[in-house]
Write a structure and sequence with these properties.
By secondary structure, this protein is an alpha/beta fold. The protein is built from 11 helices and 8 strands.
């Protein structure tokens, strides 16, 4: 497969396959995982079929959804290194419309194991192509690096969302990320584009946060999202309960910010309203994709 999977359900008018979005920034602690998890749950609650793909060896997105890593039969590592059909690696969650391909620390070895692999940069794109018609949105939580895992994510994605924290030196390293995106666009994935920049960890009590937002707005004048995610203890607490912020405290400022971001994301993707919206964010129904935790599968 020489190109990314399809062109996504977006302004291009193609609706047969998923819009694939990589959340990337090589700086750690900028809110990539919180954004990936919170947005995935909000979109699933609204009836969109969503796949969250954990590409970070720390596996924080997996933990944030309450998935027991010790009970997993297959993970992202198996998909990338052993070319396991992606449908067999989907982990069970109790959320309607939301599937997860989980990660564990073993994924860190993939950077070495894939060094001599054929089409090593396209392993994820090839895997996603087999399930693209099952989902409307695929969100990829990238690791805090610009290594082979992130390159795989960028090669498979249609769009990149860059979370940037409202702190000193926020733009340090972003130019390197943009350079990497341009290199991937030229050499591996011509349709890749930056969908937008999301400001996170905003502290309204300080001038610094407002100053950083203005600096980023000058750097990305047409790409910054209107939603700004505040620094919030509720956002920090939610993962310890295996919940997204919308499930943990829907009335919190963090939940409201991510709800607004989800709306903007849908607007920029030009996704139509789902035909059958979910009644709520949770369901006892088992996902139709592979039952990773119990060993069942629906291979593509």
């Amino acid at each position: 497969m020489g190109a990314p999977l399809g062109s996504g359900a977006n302004a291009r008018g193609v609706t047969s396959v998923a819009s694939v979005i990589a959340l990337a920034n090589q700086k750690g602690g900028v809110g990539k995982t919180t954004t990936a998890v919170s947005t995935s749950v909000f979109l699933a609650e609204r009836g969109y079929r969503v796949l969250l793909l954990d590409m970070d060896p720390q596996g924080n997105a997996t933990s944030s959804l309450g998935v027991d890593k010790s009970a997993l039969l297959h993970t992202t590592y198996d998909v990338l290194v052993d070319e396991l059909p992606l449908g067999r690696a989907v982990a069970v969650t109790d959320r309607r419309n939301l599937d997860l391909v989980a990660s564990t620390p073993s994924l860190a070895a993939a950077e070495v194991d894939l060094v001599s692999a054929i089409e090593r940069e396209r392993r994820l794109a090839n895997a996603l192509a087999t399930v693209a018609d099952r989902y409307q949105v695929v969100l990829i939580d990238c690791p805090p690096s610009l290594g082979l895992l992130t390159i795989n994510a960028l090669t498979a994605a249609h769009y990149v969302v860059i979370p940037i924290q409202c702190e000193f030196l926020a733009l340090e390293g972003v130019s390197q990320l943009v350079t990497t995106i341009d290199l991937v666009k030229r050499g591996l994935n011509p349709s890749l584009d930056v969908l937008g920049v999301l400001m996170t960890m905003f502290d309204g009590r300080t001038r610094l946060s407002a100053h950083v937002v203005e600096e980023v707005r000058r750097f990305f004048p047409t790409r910054i999202f209107r939603a700004i995610v505040p620094r919030s203890i509720r956002l920090a607490e939610a993962p310890s309960f295996g919940q997204a912020i919308g499930e943990y405290d829907a009335a919190s400022r963090g939940a409201q910010a991510y709800a607004q971001f989800a709306d903007e994301l849908l607007e920029r993707l030009a996704l139509p309203s789902p035909a059958t919206p979910a009644s709520n964010g949770r369901s006892a129904a088992v996902p139709s994709a592979a039952l990773n935790r119990t060993g069942g599968s629906t291979e593509p």
